[in-house]
Amino acid sequence: MLFKLARPVIFALDPERAHRLSIAGLKALPGRAAPAAGPLATEVAGLQFPNPVGMAAGYDKDGEVPDALMGLGFGFAEIGSITPLPQPGNPKPRLFRLVQDRAVINRMGFNNGGMDAAFARLARRKRDGSGVLGVNVGANKDAADRVADYVTGITRFSGVADYITVNISSPNTPGLRNLQAKGELEALLEAIAAARQPETPPVFLKVAPDLESGDHERIVRAALDNGIAALIVSNTTISRPSLQSADAGEAGGLSGAPLKALALSQLRRFREIAGDTLPLVGVGGIATAEDAWERIRAGASLVQLYSAAVYRGPGIARYITRGLERLMRADGFASIAEAVGSE
Ligand SMILES: Cc1cc2nc3c(=O)[nH]c(=O)nc-3n(C[C@H](O)[C@H](O)[C@H](O)COP(=O)(O)O)c2cc1C
């Protein structure tokens, strides 16, 4: 309600400035506990999630406010993407609100403060809540060896992350998505598997929605062969479904409502192939409890969102979890796990 009143003021600001202000606001908020495990609690990859609704990567790139996000009702928060070395990202402007489309286009380019700074921040965290912390890692733009950057990320954050996401699906680092290609993906995942230590947490893989037929089988096989614990489907799209907003022609990755149908169909395809051998995390255009429920019924064990928080504000997690509980009961399910893939 308050957000509805403030929205015109927030939307009058440059989007990147509004984003920084929201992080500052969360930092200033009195600490609130992560949601307690209730009817929506669910186990994925051996981790206990108090509810299945998470904040997607890219909002809290440097791990400044994961606990504040969980205090808002998110069952988990994925910080990052973080690269080994700090880097400034692309020239501004690089973030665009497409208000008429309820969408966002970004070409941030992994702007972040690097792994040392993020690690130090996370190491100071009190880990007493029930929420789950994911750390999403990427490769530096000018890395000589991108595979080595991912291995560094996994090694670096093993002591502080509940899970680590290998993000090879950002469209804003030239050539990064080639790591999804045949041969490259297998080499990357083998290197990650070889670097695994007893303390390494579950490793998730985040893929792009812009895939061709045949890619899905290959990705699932490579993931299963190399001990990937879950697949996150999906990142932003470089495709452009029909859009109304003035900034529709900006380069970068599109997220929000226009991504929903594509992300859902890719999730369904992965579920068809993987069955229940590989947990899926559904992300892309989720804005309501109905959207989250549809994604779970289609095969997602967990869901994430980012763009909808821009349009609906900080109450979004509670709004969705409340609705999910209602939908779960109405459809006669006793738990989220029971509903996964039940459509
Ligand atoms: C401004 C912005 C920055 C993002 N940065 C990252 C990132 O650094 N790493 C990543 O894996 N995904 C990133 N994403 C993608 C989101 O995590 C998510 O996959 C995508 O936005 C689709 O979800 P949504 O429609 O709910 O926003 C970013 C998205 C936005 C809008």
UniProtKB/TrEMBL annotation:
Regarding protein family, the annotation reads:
Belongs to the dihydroorotate dehydrogenase family. Type 2 subfamily.
Q: What does this protein do?
A: Catalyzes the conversion of dihydroorotate to orotate with quinone as electron acceptor.
InterPro entries, sorted = Aldolase_TIM, DHO_dehydrogenase, Dihydroorotate_DH_1_2, Dihydroorotate_DH_2, Dihydroorotate_DH_cat, Dihydroorotate_DH_CS
Self-association state and partner proteins as the record states:
Monomer.
**Residues annotated as domain Dihydroorotate dehydrogenase catalytic:** 40-328
Gene giving rise to this polypeptide: pyrD
Membrane topology recorded in Swiss-Prot or TrEMBL = Peripheral membrane protein
What does the entry list as the binding residues for substrate? 61, 106-110, 167, 172, 235-236
Q: Which organism is it from?
A: Paraurantiacibacter namhicola
Q: Which GO terms describe its molecular function?
A: dihydroorotate dehydrogenase (quinone) activity
In the UniProt record, does the keyword Oxidoreductase occur?
yes
For this protein, the record's Pfam families field holds: DHO_dh
Output this protein's name.
Answer: Dihydroorotate dehydrogenase (quinone)
Write out the catalytic residues in the record. Answer: 170
* Major enzyme class: oxidoreductase
Q: Which pathway does this polypeptide act in? A: Pyrimidine metabolism; UMP biosynthesis via de novo pathway; orotate from (S)-dihydroorotate (quinone route): step 1/1
* Lineage of origin: Bacteria, Pseudomonadati, Pseudomonadota, Alphaproteobacteria, Sphingomonadales
